[in-house]
Design a protein that fits this description.
Distance between the termini of chain A: 37 Å
Helix content of chain B: under 10%
Number of helices of chain A: 0
Largest interface: A-B, 24 and 24 residues
Structural class of chain A: mainly beta
Number of strands of chain A: 11
Structural class of chain B: mainly beta
Strand content of chain B: over 45%
Shape of chain A: globular
Radius of gyration of chain B: 13 Å
Order of helices and strands of chain B: EEEEEEEEEE
Radius of gyration of chain A: 13 Å
Oligomer: heterodimer
Strand content of chain A: over 45%
Largest sheet of chain B: 6 strands, mixed
Order of helices and strands of chain A: EEEEEEEEEEE
Shape of chain B: globular
């Protein structure tokens, strides 16, 4: 099976712009979770989607949103980008209650 | 790599020695714990997990110990190899969310 894939791998944006990141889970996995990884805050949970519904949410502002499609692929969107949004955004997929498999991440730089 | 710049605690071990990486978790109600390994340029990779009804679990070359009394997890790697060099994170499941620790960088020298 192919692993979790994320696109793009690298992205540069400027403050105030918005960005959409994409994640394709492992075939058969219906749950997709998103995480933000920064040097200062480490790995932090953003949200989890299961069967197109948001199942759980972390403590991030409303500028961070996501969705999941019927084929389990997921996107996350960040609007009105701030410098502090520069991070590695990781996506993980699983079949519920099983271990999570992470993708390689999207490195977002906000200038 | 993604972890450059992170001011992580670092454990340096000689190849062939055993490594012990420690982690303090936050929530006494957490019931599931996982160790992840993250190499430069990659996402975290599952190593081993343990549920709160156990205090020890062994895998291939790795052992996880759980002490619920003091909310402490440890990862033991036997016969550490250069390929074990990475950042290691513990994670706890609390209110169905995965909460990660800050991580420890393991450096293996010949």
């Amino acid at each position: 099976k192919a692993g979790v894939t994320q696109t793009p791998r690298y992205l540069i944006k400027t403050r105030g712009q918005q960005v959409t990141l994409s994640c394709s889970p492992i075939s058969g996995h219906r749950s997709v979770s998103w995480y933000q990884q920064t040097p200062g805050q480490g790995l932090q949970f953003l949200f989890e989607y299961f069967s197109e519904t948001q199942r759980n949410k972390g403590n991030f502002p409303g500028r961070f949103s996501g969705r999941q499609f019927s084929n389990s692929r997921s996107e996350m969107n960040v609007s009105t980008l701030e410098l502090g949004d520069s991070a590695l955004y990781l996506c993980a997929s699983r079949e519920l209650e099983d271990e999570q498999f992470f993708g390689p991440g999207t490195r977002l730089t906000v200038l | 790599g993604e972890n450059v710049g992170l001011h992580l605690p670092t454990l340096s071990v000689q190849e062939g020695d055993n490594s012990i990486i420690n982690c303090a978790y936050s929530n006494s109600a957490s019931d599931y714990f996982i160790w992840y390994k993250q190499e430069s340029g990659k996402g975290p990779q599952f190593i081993i997990d343990i549920r709160s009804n156990m205090d020890k679990r062994q895998g291939q070359r790795v052992t996880v110990l759980l002490n619920k009394t003091v909310k402490h997890l440890s990862l033991q790697i036997a016969a550490t190899q250069p390929g074990d060099s990475a950042v290691y994170f513990c994670a706890e499941t609390y209110t169905d969310k995965l909460i990660f620790g800050t991580g420890t960088r393991l450096q293996v020298f010949p």
